[in-house]
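Subgroup meeting minutes
Present: P.N., E.W., G.H.
Scribe: E.W.

1. P.N. recapped why we're keeping a running log of single-chain structure predictions: easier to compare across weeks, and new members can see raw inputs and outputs side by side.
2. G.H. added today's entry (262 aa).
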Amino acid sequence: MSVTRVRHPHDDAPDTMAEFRLLRILPQGARRDGLRNEVVRAWLPMAHRIATRYRDRGESLEDLRQVAALALVKAVDGFDPDRGGAFASYAVPTITGELRKHFRDHTWVLRVPRRTQELRRQVTLVCQELARSGGEFSAADIAARTHLGTDEVREGLSARNAYAVLSLDVELAARGAGGGKTLADTLGGPDPGLQTVVDRESVRPLLGALSERDRRILYLRFFRGMTQQRIAAEYGVSQMHISRVLNRICSQLREQAMADAA
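Output recorded in log:
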């Protein structure tokens, strides 16, 4: 059985009242299933149109259309034509509610209580209205519009940052001839030098207790980067002697540092 379409201000609003009445009396079976599918297909453009309103919010349009289509099936099954209302008046809130539920349950980066999500929605709507009117506004201004307490307004405002996050790969505005950078490029990284701060501070007082000759040999080897052979030539000794001196000094410093730490 095909659905009769009637011209309507909205092309996606067919006249299916007769089909809905027939669905109410048909028994379960292939005939009823076929009629139900025809009604769903007739109203599917409306469901897609509603889903399109929620695009560019972090979810693909295809996923949103699937959510809207499932909500449409739910509306078709729950609609009672004997109550006298139009199907669109019943279906639109049902589809819209399912889409909002989808965003609430699947797209929040941080899981927050439903009450907080509702506060975010109320606060966001009022912020948009106040922003269009121009000028600055405070939490007290939002509270006056929403009839909420200032603490609830602040909770709703803070929840706005939990809804979505920016990818570290997002490209920032280009500056100069070098082109744009990603957000990750602006973040710092671990400093290898920080790992040696504790060791250096632990050894510092121990170095002061060394003889002037031992301190200079350490300085030439580890701060000036001189080889053991060059240090030995400066002191007029063998390279083996300088090697033994360095091993003795390092072992002594290590043992003293470990003893102090213990």
